[in-house]
Amino acid sequence: MVTDDFPVLAITSGEPAGVGPELCASLADRQWPAHLVVLGDAELIEERLARIGSAVQVRAYQPGLAPESGMIDVLHQPLASPAVAGELNADNAPYVLALLDRAVQGCVSGEFAGIVTAPVHKGVICDAGVPFTGHTEYLAERTSTPLVVMMLVGGGMRVALATTHLPLSAVPAAITPALLEQTLRIVHRDLVSRFGLDAPRILVAGLNPHAGEGGHMGREEIEVITPVLDRLRAEGMLLVGPLPADTLFVPHTLAQGDAVLAMYHDQGLPVLKHASFGGGVNVTLGLPIIRTSVDHGTALDLAGSGRADPGSLFAAVELAISMAASKRKSA
Ligand SMILES: NC(=O)c1ccc[n+]([C@@H]2O[C@H](COP(=O)([O-])OP(=O)(O)OC[C@H]3O[C@@H](n4cnc5c(N)ncnc54)[C@H](O)[C@@H]3O)[C@@H](O)[C@H]2O)c1
Ligand SMILES: N[C@H](C(=O)O)[C@H](O)COP(=O)(O)O
Predict the structure, then answer these.
(1) Which of 94, 192, 252, 266 has the fewest Cβ atoms within 10 angstroms?
(2) In whole numbers, what is the pLDDT of the chain averaged over residues?
(3) Is 136 labelled a binding residue?
(4) Where does this protein hold a divalent metal cation (predicted)?
């Protein structure tokens, strides 16, 4: 059960051909102020541990059992087909989704205080016939949440996205006044409730080069972004922008805000990942449950090598623990 000061967190081990299973096992290298329960196929995790020469042991998860050093507690979920490190197999896509479903179910029932996700491979899930664009959208659907916001934290930055996993050509039409307003409300609310900021200041990027150059390089700033910002400012929200994205991330400007709202995935994430890859955290705002994740993908090239850096997973667990504590304080 989730106790006040010792949350139980579900760690989904993700794509079985990727680095997720071995990274999850490396969580046993540290002592955590939480009970970490790895969701995955126990034999797969044992096989990866043996392969990388790790002394970590696998124990079957039982609620209430105290964590032990050098051991990971695994809530066994069987693979559909044997997994080979580095080789994607669409037959295991339902397994990957079952890990997420089980974790969500545990959060809803109160068994888990939150979810930390190791990476999945979006393409192989789609290849299996399940339209899938990412955990963010999947968890929104599974928790019946109409809108969630992806935010990455790292390198001293918090970068939220107005749009997530959609083709670049679809971005301008997706940035509607309603989307932008709801997104900013979610970012603002969660920065207060989950990150402990009293009056967060959000730097909002424009969509076009030089924020549209007064309408000469695009009109979204004038017609969509500025009116939304004006409306929310009138309510007291501290919003700066729309700012030209090329200079938004220079230290002097960045220092004037607590978070950035970028208009699309590759406007914000390359900057953050350049500054912090391997140590950043992806967090989903607006969900009724806590969810954090690594900042990297399945790294098929490293799977089974023992060379994958667990830094981002560790940071994701730390953030989930701190968010669970904030939630308890505000309850
Ligand atoms: N949280 C997630 O589930 C998540 C996040 C990002 C990407 N993805 C997915 O992962 C798949 C592969 O994506 P990609 O190839 O663009 O990115 P990737 O992050 O898997 O790999 C990019 C490079 O970073 C290296 N790298 C990644 N993780 C590392 C680690 N922990 N330690 C050391 N080096 C590491 C890889 O070896 C590779 O050279 C895609 O399907 C993508 O959508 C999932
Ligand atoms: N956009 C994320 C990143 O670059 O880290 C990644 O694709 C994972 O997204 P989900 O959390 O939605 O799976």
Answers:
(1) 252
(2) 95
(3) yes
(4) 165, 210, 265
pTM of the model: 0.95
Which domains, and CATH codes, for the chain? 1-145+287-330 (3.40.718.10), 149-286 (3.40.718.10)
Ligand nearest to the CA of 118: 1
Band of pLDDT at residue 3, cut at 50, 70 and 90:
low
DSSP one-letter string for 268-295: HHHHHHHHHTTT-EEEEES-SS-EEEES
Give the pairing type, strands 149-154 and 281-285.
antiparallel
The C-alpha angle with vertex 181 and arms to 185 and 214, in degrees rounded to 5, equals 130
ipTM of the complex: 0.98
Instruction: Please give the C-alpha separations between residue 134 and each of 79, 140, 260, in angstroms, as whole numbers.
Output: 20, 10, 21
- pLDDT > 90? residue 329: no
CA 202 to centroid of ligand 2, rounded, Å: 21
